[in-house]
Design goal:
This protein is 39% helix and 22% strand. By secondary structure, the chain is of the alpha/beta class. The chain folds into two domains: 140 residues, 3-Layer(aba) Sandwich (Rossmann fold), CATH 3.40.50.300; 51 residues, 2-Layer Sandwich (Guanylate Kinase phosphate binding domain). The protein is globular, with a radius of gyration of 16 Å.
Length: 199
């Protein structure tokens, strides 16, 4: 628990290890992961309420019209977003929140969150990023081509973040240690406004 809770917005190219980093941060710090909602079908091994809240399109749109989403977007024909209940009650309780997103989501969160800490997670270089993405085996050829094309857009967003962390192959704990240090530092940063949704 933190007396001045933070929102960490973690993003970076697909296949860079965001989920693995977040899992370790949850184990070590008890940080709350803001679980996204999506209209896409679950992939093998994904569980509702753990990896995503899987909603029908009509359920998702009902929540949009009711003002329940803090952020949402249409991503390649699938609706994806984060509900306010995944952020506000946890901040009120003094608990840090981490949001996993992509470059499009990070741009939106910069407008919708005050006092958030933006961390860009990447690999050693572009070739490693491409190899990790291709090696996941979870994308069909069309989706893989889209994600590879998006890689340069993701990397171009690096200067817009507070921190850049490199998740080197086989050295996950080093990346996690670095983010833990960032969180500890930012909790004591008197110049950072309290984290809150502003839209």
């Amino acid at each position: 628990m933190s007396a001045r809770p933070l929102v960490i917005v973690l993003h970076g190219p697909s296949g860079v290890g965001k989920d693995s980093v977040i899992d370790r941060l949850r184990e070590r710090l008890g940080i709350h992961r803001a679980t996204s909602s999506t209209t896409r079908a679950p992939r093998d091994g994904e569980r509702d309420g753990v990896h995503y809240h899987f909603l029908t399109e009509s359920e998702f749109l009902r929540k949009v019209h009711a003002g329940e989403f803090a952020e949402w977007a249409n991503v390649y024909g699938e609706l994806k977003g984060v509900e306010r209940r995944e952020i506000e009650p946890h901040l009120t309780a003094g608990r840090d929140v981490i949001i996993r997103t992509d470059v499009q989501g990070a741009r939106t969160w910069r407008r919708k969150l005050e006092g958030a800490v933006f961390v860009f997670l990447t690999a050693e270089d572009r070739e490693v990023l491409r190899a990790r993405l291709a090696g996941r085996g979870s994308e069909d050829p069309e989706s893989l081509a889209r994600r590879l094309a998006q890689l340069e857009e993701e990397l171009a967003d690096i200067p817009n973040n507070d921190y850049v962390v490199v998740n080197r192959h086989g050295r996950l704990e080093e990346a996690v240690d670095e983010i833990v240090h960032i969180i500890e530092k930012e909790r004591c940063n008197p110049n950072r406004p309290p984290a809150r949704l502003i839209a």
